[in-house]
Amino acid sequence: MKRPRIAVSRLAAAVAALAVTATACSGLNSASGEQQFSGQTLTVAGTWNGAEGKNFRKVLDGFTKKTGAKVKFLSSRAQGRDDFALFIRDLRKNGKTPDVAMVPQVGVLQQFAQKGWLEPLPPRVELEAARNFALVWQNYGSVRRIFYGLYFKASHKSTVWYSPKAFEKADVEPPKDYKEMIANGQKLADSGTPAFSVAGKDAWPLTDWFENIYLAQAGPANYAKLATNEIGWQDPTVIKALKTFGKLFKGDDLVAGGGAEALRTDLNESVGAVYGKNQKAAMVYEGDFVAGIISGEFNRKVDKEANFFDFPPIAKDKQAPVISGGDAAVAMKKGKQQEDLAMSFIEYLASPKAAEIWAKQGGFLSPNINLNLQAYPDETTRKVAKSLVDAGEAVQFDMSDQAPADFGGSAGKGEWQLLQEFIRDPSDPEATARKLDQAASKAYLDASATGTAG
To answer: Which of 3.40.50.360, 3.30.1780.10, 3.40.50.1820, 3.40.190.10 is the CATH number of 8-156+325-396?
Structure first.
């Protein structure tokens, strides 16, 4: 299955439509737009809770200030719900469908569109997206060439965070390629600090590790095919990536405590192993959100006590990987009464101004190319954001997020479980590939039968 492309003719039609109705169709841009929705209430559902929820609330407050609309936010995590698709399904069953959902997985967005739950985004939103986002982000929000989802929040999942003090002690520098990263890891271990702490208990960081290695070795064409199960998980490229990944867990030098310790370590603990009081490792691989854990949980100054480098290239003829995830705003079908309010909110989210509100708070990245990088609170986050934006069309979406949840996103099954088993004993990558292939085939078949395939 090829990724959907936004047709140039459709975008041209959007521009033409806007030229005729520029002041009539947009609640945000029309002369009467200020406070246009006063007295109305918009319901938005998302996953964010805690600090993230509070920061998103400030974005919502910005919409209220501009339009007069009250905004009610429903957090799935605040209600103890980890499966966002089931959370939305239950809201619909109970007659409480939100106007807008901030969908955290591209596979879920596609599932909602295929079920007929979403309204296509109108030309005015499409044009605002074209102004502010690389085409790749518009494509990820599209299903069968129809634009449904506006990616407001992104993550950069190709960042490796390190302790500058540990690097200085071992006399190593950020690596230029994967081979050098492993060599540096051995030097770090020899100096008394194991190279990596790995969050194997959470499982999903293992999928991110694998995806970066796979993309860096096999390239974007194979990555796209594997992401849609076109080539299958017994392909030689998969086995090769598993072998590379497995070498990290042969002994305790490259991963603190080896696979056994990794399986007892969650994400926060893996970050704490590098930046906590008792340092157990020199590096931790995960996305840009690690910066928020470093400063928030461990009270370290990111610019001075922590730094990152991009996940390095592996194959000489391949580029460094750039993998991302994100949350897309979609308009749920509820009838015409709320549609204009929902579309105006999504149009607002497409603007640099909305992204700037959260960017100033930290713990946020935007794929919006027109967001001033100075909005981010520290130089390190600005560097991460620039790396993501500069990648442009080279960005690949998180592979497990594109898969059916039974394979790519569920604890105790599918890819999560099998990669956990693999790091416990990485001696037989071929057997792991067979199990992954069987699990993927079943999940995609089941999803296709029920109309929920990503």
So the answer is: 3.40.190.10
Do residues 326 and 367 lie in contact, with contact meaning Cβ atoms separated by under 8 Å?
yes
Name the DSSP letter for residue 146.
E
- pLDDT in single tens digits along all 454 residues of the chain: 333 334 444 454 444 444 434 433 444 544 445 788 999 999 999 999 988 999 999 999 999 999 999 999 999 999 999 789 999 999 999 999 999 999 998 889 988 999 999 999 999 999 999 999 999 999 999 999 999 999 999 999 999 999 999 999 999 999 999 999 999 999 999 999 999 999 999 999 999 999 999 999 999 999 999 999 999 999 999 999 999 999 999 988 999 999 999 999 999 999 999 999 999 999 999 999 998 899 888 999 888 899 999 999 998 888 899 999 999 999 999 877 789 999 999 999 999 999 999 999 888 999 999 999 999 988 999 999 999 999 988 999 999 989 888 899 888 999 999 999 999 999 999 999 999 999 999 999 887 776 554 4
pTM: 0.84
Would you tell me how many other CB atoms lie within 10 Å of the CB of residue 22? 13
In angstroms, rounded to a whole number, what is the distance separating the alpha carbons of residues 340 and 349?
A: 14
CATH 3.40.190.10 fits 159-321+404-450, yes or no: yes
Using CB atoms within 10 Å of the CB of residue 278, give its burial: 0 to 12 exposed, 13 to 18 middle, 19+ buried. Answer: exposed
Identical fold, 8-156+325-396 and 159-321+404-450:
yes
